[in-house]
Amino acid sequence: MSQSFARHRRLRKTPAIRGMVRETQLHKNDFIQPVFVTYGTDVKLEISSMPGVFNFSLDRLGEEIDEIVSLGIPSVMVFGVPETEAKDSLGTGAYSDQGIVQQAIRMIKENYPELVVIADTCLCEFTDHGHCGVVHTHEHDGHIHADVDNDESLVLLAQTAVSQAQAGADIIAPSNMMDGFVQVIREALDEAGFEDVPIMSYAVKYASAFYGPFREAAQSAPQFGDRKSYQMDPANVREALREAESDVQQGADMLMVKPALAYMDVLRVVRDNFDLPLVAYNVSGEYAMVKAAAQQGWINERGIVTEMMLGLKRAGADMIITYFSKDVVRWLREEWV
């Protein structure tokens, strides 16, 4: 038989050879584990649409952080779930010194000083209307319309970022998608003496249907309307470059694309055009779909999740925020043994 064709299979012959030539590697340092902190005491409440993910009260948060630290995961992203009666139109719980996120940050940094704590910086969990900023209503043609005021919202978001940094957050991660949010938060942090606190910008955040389970977890669903006037249209990718470029110019230290799986092309385009560290957020809906199929026995969860994570890294992600972080690191440990 002719030997003129390439023998690609030579480099796939054994596990050892495949490992030696593997182009993309997963490592525990790639992962950021989200944590949900809620009010009350002795609370460990599983989120029904996200099996294995829990809301923890402050007195039980240590159980989760202990596990994360023991696995060697380097970072957590903190989300707060306040009491419903504590919410108001301006989301004051987001920037209160005694807010649930601020309390959680202090607790984590006091007990786990080496863990990198990222604060999600937004108002939606703390507003009674569920939007990511200050809302004004007006009547037009007999209908009541609500608009999120961009510049008024920036003032409160800057206050939130500073309060989180004062509590000890290592990284500020603003997720609101208001125009100018990186610039205003950078200025506020610098003026407050936090020049060394980096900003992980949710630079490219789409108005996605994949967020549903998170809104259950964080109790942050909009009470009216939607977020399409400030989050991006899923059909657009050139717009993503404009958003990312603005954040780079305004002083972002890291860029994020959210969601991840349906937007790997966006990850690649952002990676190819900017040299800042790039984060992919593997969001709640992506997690829930895999868990639901795995519970039915329809898929190999470990295989599927590993492929997903490799795909995000191939697309250009340096870091991955995912609810699978603990599982993936456990699987990696097994491979190392």
Automatic annotation (TrEMBL):
Top enzyme class, one word, equals: lyase
The parts of the chain that form a coiled coil are none
By its UniProt entry, which SUPFAM superfamilies does this protein fall under?
Answer: Aldolase
Which Enzyme Commission numbers does its entry carry? 4.2.1.24
What is the recorded name of this protein?
Delta-aminolevulinic acid dehydratase
Per the similarity annotation, which family is this? Answer: Belongs to the ALAD family.
Its keywords, alphabetically, are: Heme biosynthesis, Lyase, Porphyrin biosynthesis
List the PROSITE patterns: D_ALA_DEHYDRATASE
Task: Provide the reaction this enzyme catalyses.
Answer: 2 5-aminolevulinate = porphobilinogen + 2 H2O + H(+)
Assembly state and interactors? Homooctamer.
Q: Name one Pfam family in it.
A: ALAD
Listed pathway(s): Porphyrin-containing compound metabolism; protoporphyrin-IX biosynthesis; coproporphyrinogen-III from 5-aminolevulinate: step 1/4
Q: Which Gene3D superfamilies match?
A: Aldolase class I
Q: Name one GO molecular function term.
A: porphobilinogen synthase activity
User: Per its database record, what is this protein's job?
Assistant: Catalyzes an early step in the biosynthesis of tetrapyrroles. Binds two molecules of 5-aminolevulinate per subunit, each at a distinct site, and catalyzes their condensation to form porphobilinogen.
| InterPro entries named among the record's database cross-references | ALAD, ALAD_AS, Aldolase_TIM
Membrane-spanning ranges: none
